[in-house]
C-alpha cells in the first residue's frame, strides 16, 4: 500500500510542473461576418467556455498534449479540430462557422476516442434529457423509448428498464457517473433506479460492447452523462417544477453550480411524487403510485496536469407494485405490496496528463439496499383479506431485503499518438457482495469478482476511419448455501468461473461528401446471473416459481451492424440494419407443473438470433430552417434456433412521425418550439409460448415551449400532452398485460424552470 501511495505521489509531482497552455480567438458567421457567442469545448479535459458578444473566447490552463477542440452554436455546423499544445504556447484560432439546419453535434463520451457523432466509427445515439422532458416523459425509463431501437419493460409508471434491440435485463449495462450502475437489475420488476435530474444526456450503444465494458454489455449500453460543472469563474442556480395531470404528480428540482479556475462544485436535490395513474377508460390502477428523493453532488480540482472529480448520488425510491384495478383514490401514501430502494453511488475519476499521453483512473462504489414488502404477512393476521390495502408503516419488517455492495475500477492509458494511430490499453474489474436480511431468499449470499484487460486502436485517414480491439475477461461467482438441506427449496453452495475473449472491428467510410457508411462486427458475452444459476423458490414480483440451473454457460454473441447516412442542408436520411447471433441464450420456460399455487418455470439455454434495424428521415428545407419533419421506423425479430419459438419481450414494430417548428429570435423570447407527434405501434404477434398477441395502437402527442430572457434571469416554459385522445391501450412490454391492465391515458405536463 505504501509503495502504491509513493508511486502515485511521484507520478503526480512529475506532471505538476507542466507549463500552462492557452487557446484564444474569435468566432464569426460565414455569411455576414457577425460575431457568434459559440460554445468552445475540449471534451477530453471537460473544459470549455462561451464566446462573448464580440465572438471572443479564451481557454487557459490547458495541459501539454493533442486534444480535440469543438466549436458549436445552434443553427451552425459544428467544427471539430485536433490541436497540439506544447510548453506554454498561446494558440490563436479564429473560426468561421457555416449556417446549417442540422442539430448541434455533441462528442460521444461512451466510446473511447471522444469523437463527434458524425465522426464516430460506431453509430451511437445521443439525446439530451431536456429534449426527453420536453416530450412529456414522466420518468427517464419512459423518456428513452423515444430513441429508435430502445424500449422499456414496465410495471406501471414507477418501474421501467431499458430494452435495446430486443435484449434487456443483465444483457444491457447501465453506466452513471462513469461507473457501472449495479442495483440487482436481474429482475423484470427491478427498475432503472436513477432520476433524470442532474443527468445532462443519454447515450445508447446498440449492440455488443463487451470490448469496452466486459460482461453484461452483450446487448448494449445505456450511458448516462452527468450534469456538467459551470464554466470557470461563474456561479448559477436553477429551480424547476413540473406538474403531471394524470397522476396529480409533482416534481421539483433545485441545483447550484459554482466554478473557479481550478475548483468546481455542484449540488442538486430532487423530489418527485405521483398518485395512481389513470387509464384511457378512466380507471386508476391501484398501487401504481410512487415517490422518489434524489441528491447529486460533485467537486472537481483541475489544473494543467491533473483533473480529479468526485461525485455522489443518493436515491430513495418508494414504488408501489400494481396488481389490479380496485380502490379508486388519489392518495400518495404507499400500500402493500411495495418496494423501498436506497441507492448510493460514489465515483472518483482522475486523469493525469503527460506530454503526449494521459492516464484515466476511475473508481466506483455502489451500495444498493432493496426491500420488498408483501401482502401475505398481513393476510396471516387479517382473515378478512384486507391486508392487501394496509398502508406500509415505517419500521415494518421487509419480506425480502437484499444488500449489494460493489467496488469497481477502470484504468485506461491513452498512449502517445503514432502517426494516424490512437491507442488505448486498460484494465477493468469489480468486487461485489450480495447479502440477505429478509425472511425470504430470492438469491443466496454471494461474492462476485470481475477482471478484464483490453486494447483498442483507432486509425484515421481522410475518407476512412478504422477501429479495432481485443479483450479478455474472467468472472468468479461464489455463493453460500441457503435454507435447510432437507427443504425442497434448498439452494446448494456454488463456485463457478466464467471467462471469454472478445473482439471488435469497424470502419466509417465517406463514400461521397454527403454520404457515409459504417460497418461494425463485434462479439460480446454475458455470464449467467445469480437468479439464473441458483433460483429455487417463488418470485413474488413475477408471480411464478423459478428454478435455476447451476450448469448454465456464458451467453456469447456476434453482431454485424451496417448503417448508412446522407445529409445536406435540406434533409438527413439514415438506415441501420443488424444481425445478432447469440449462442447459449438463457431464457425461462414454463414446465406445466405447480408448486404452492404458482406455476414452475425453469431457466434453460438454446442458441438464438435477432435481426432488424432502424430507418429515419429528418426534413429541414433551407431557407425554412425553423421547419422540421422527423420520421423513423424500427423493427426487431428474435427467434430460438432449431426450435419453432419466438423470444419473449420482443418489442413491436413502430413508426414515429413528428412535425416540429423552432424559432430563435428577439431579445426577450430567445427560443420557441411547437411539436405534434404520432406514434404507431403495430400488432405484435411474434410471441413466445407464455405470451399473448398485443393489438396495435396509435398515440398522438403535442407540446409547446420556449425560453424567455430577463437580463440575468432565464425562464424555460414547457407544456406537453401525451396520449392526446386518451386512447386505451396495453403495451406489449408491460408486465401488467397479463392482468389486462392498460397503460396511462392522457397526461398533461406543465414545466417551469428558472435559471439565474
Question: Mind sketching the topology for me?
Answer:
Blueprint: H1 2-16, E1 21-29, E2 39-42, E3 47-50, E4 56-62, E5 65-72, E6 79-85, E7 90-92, E8 95-97, E9 124-128, H2 129-134, H3 140-143, E10 150-155, E11 159-164, E12 172-176, E13 179-180, E14 199-206, H4 210-213, E15 220-226, E16 234-244, E17 249-259, E18 263-274, E19 290-302, E20 306-320, E21 338-353, E22 358-373, H5 376-381, E23 400-414, E24 421-436, E25 446-460, E26 464-479, E27 494-512, E28 515-526, H6 530-534, E29 536-539, E30 544-547, E31 555-567, E32 571-595, E33 598-619, E34 627-640, E35 654-663, E36 669-681, E37 697-710, E38 713-722, E39 747-755
What's this model, at a glance?
This protein is mainly beta and 756 residues long. The chain contains 6 helices and 39 strands.
Helix amount, in percent?
under 10%
Number of strands: 39
CATH class of the largest domain: Mainly Beta
Distance between the termini: 46 Å
Give the key terms:
single chain; 756 residues; mainly beta; Immunoglobulin-like; Maltoporin, Chain A; 5-stranded mixed beta sheet; 6 helices; 39 strands; globular; disordered N terminus
